[in-house]
Task: inverse folding
């Protein structure tokens, strides 16, 4: 009997050691949690703002103040991006800051949301709408999320989630509706941000002449180059992968409706932004005897040319 017991103990010990030895193998092959998957944190450098849906006749501030369900939905969607390491811009915080600083005058009330989006620096914005209806003991929740590219306004992902249960816990219903579409929706945005990594972030660049200057875009520089050609050649060389579209040249303005810049500095690997691009433009112009200044609103860059040697 004692011999049998000892054999059993030895068998258990051997099985235990085998389990310990194979555990690292299974751990290596186990799927990673989505928020830590390779490359996602890099993709997440593209900025996202989550905003509430409002009708054209509605003030977005009123929608937020009077509809607690939309506030919950906006917060929930934003939190989903935050948990996966994405860079989000807080719409509600920006809205409150703008109100506190009287950033928008009465004639801009109807454009409150678009103004915030323009100045936010967000590459994408996700618009959230939620509808809750009750029928007897059942509560039906419909959550709609739509992603747009901020610069172009183009929609590229739309998902609708639903939840119908015998409960008045609206937050849980919204959570349930979002859970059904969350992964597919976020993965679609991953594909879009991969596209941005490939072709660059879309920006608008506008060159203006100062009202005090006596030059125009056909004025020759000290190197005998026309100002408009100087700018056009530099943009063509420095836009990411040469992606830029010159949409018009007027007497006092040159407009690029789209210039692509990289998410990362090509030399240092550090995050790259429109301010860095502006510094390069101004530095180059000054090397050619052209004095200029910058003004940046979100993904829009305004270069004002003041004088020329």
Result:
């Amino acid at each position: 009997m004692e011999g049998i017991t000892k054999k059993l103990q030895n068998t258990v010990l051997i099985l235990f050691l085998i389990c310990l030895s194979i555990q690292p193998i299974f751990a290596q092959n186990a799927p990673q949690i989505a928020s830590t998957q390779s490359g996602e944190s890099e993709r997440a450098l593209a900025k996202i703002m989550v905003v509430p849906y409002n009708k054209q006749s509605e003030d977005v501030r009123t929608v937020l103040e009077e509809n607690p369900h939309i506030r919950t939905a906006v917060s929930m969607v934003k939190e989903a991006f935050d948990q996966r390491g994405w860079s989000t811009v807080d719409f509600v915080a920006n809205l409150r800051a703008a109100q506190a600083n009287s950033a928008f005058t009465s004639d801009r009330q109807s454009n409150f949301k678009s103004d915030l989006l323009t100045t936010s620096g967000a590459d994408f914005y996700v618009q959230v709408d939620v509808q809750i209806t009750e029928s007897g003991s059942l509560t039906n929740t419909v959550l709609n999320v739509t992603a747009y590219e901020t610069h172009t306004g183009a929609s590229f992902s739309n998902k609708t989630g639903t939840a119908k249960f015998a409960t008045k816990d609206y937050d849980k219903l919204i959570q349930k509706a979002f859970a059904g579409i969350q992964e597919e929706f976020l993965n679609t945005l991953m594909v879009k941000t991969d596209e941005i990594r490939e072709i660059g972030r879309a920006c608008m660049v506008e060159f203006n002449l100062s009202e005090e200057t006596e030059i125009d875009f056909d004025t020759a520089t000290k190197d005998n180059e026309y100002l408009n050609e100087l700018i056009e050649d530099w943009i063509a060389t420095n836009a990411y992968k040469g992606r830029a579209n010159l949409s018009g040249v007027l007497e006092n303005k040159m407009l690029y409706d789209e210039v692509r810049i990289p998410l990362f500095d090509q030399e240092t690997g550090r995050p790259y932004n429109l301010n860095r691009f502006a510094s390069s433009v101004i530095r180059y112009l000054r090397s050619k005897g052209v004095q200029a200044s910058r003004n940046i609103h979100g993904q829009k860059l305004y270069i004002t040319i003041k004088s020329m040697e």
In short: The CA atoms of residues 124 and 150 lie 5 Å apart. The chain has ten helices and ten strands. Residues 200-308 form one domain. Strands lie at 47-52, 87-89, 124-135, 138-149, 155-165, 201-209, 244-249, 253-261, 290-297, 300-308.
